[in-house]
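Provenance and format

Records in this collection were gathered into a single text stream. Each protein contributes a sequence line and a token line. The two records reproduced below are adjacent in the stream.
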Amino acid sequence: MELDKDSLQFVFGSTIRALHKATALEFDKSGLEISPEQYHLLKIIASKEDSIQAELAEIMQLDKSGIMRHIDQMEARGFVQRVNDAQDRRKKYIVLTESGIQKLDNCKIALDKMANTILKGVSDAELLIFKQVLTKLKENAGG
């Protein structure tokens, strides 16, 4: 069977892998010591006031044990902390620390630098259309 390199799935998948790899390399070059997944997780935690592990797993579309590994690693590095719920001691919120906020800011700087490279030759109008098409594809796929 011949590989169809023009198929939407191939082009999209290879683009996502390339962007993920470029992000990881930029984070490494910048000395950030964080994975792209952990960066996205920090962004989600920063945007939600009361983040719990189950919700984070659902948003990231990862299993709970995968999210727990990321949270454990980030907690060990001081980027997040677990805080007990006042009414339900079994429930723990994941919150950013000052170090986590600083890490997010540093990642944003690295990503802005990377954007200048990866968006070279792409107009604002093309980028807007691309985002709209991606949104439609996601909705049509049931996401």
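Adjacent record:
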Amino acid sequence: MARTILVFYGSYRRDRQGIKLADWIVEALRARGDDATLIDARAVDLPILDRRHSDYPPGEAPAAMAALAATIAAADGFVFVVGEYNGGLQPGLKNLVDHYLPEFAWRPAAIASYSAGPFAGVRSATAWRTTLGAMGMVVTSTALSLARIGGAFDTDGRPAGEDGVRLDRAFPRFADDLAWWIDAAAAQRAKAAPPY
């Protein structure tokens, strides 16, 4: 059974490196038979948060915002590919997700973190765990963390070097955990809709 999984990425930087990880995760999920789609905050380009999607009367939200709301609401689960900016959240990704709330409810999320240095974005992953939980998502226990992202992929976008090998080895458990929670959440949503 193909699961619909959205892979969120949020860097706006000119020489962004995390897009390599986000693209690789999309392809790795597709190779497992899932319907995976990249949601790139820079490409969606929502304005700095003024009104959430749910703040607009039906049919009055900007077209890009409404289209993404429908896409999120139709998804089975999510992967958040998160870099670490000064020990915290990427502002572009945080701004994107803050436009939505009920669309994320009662669905699982997995976190894949990265950094240019040796710590693999773990402080950002910790902050995202709290944020995603507050938004009504169940965050899976198996994280994916990638250090030294600049050298972790070859020119064809495949994992390379010691960090890339670790990524390749860790991915199956990461994806299996997300798949289990997607199936469990779908069964529960079939019994009762979220109360908000």
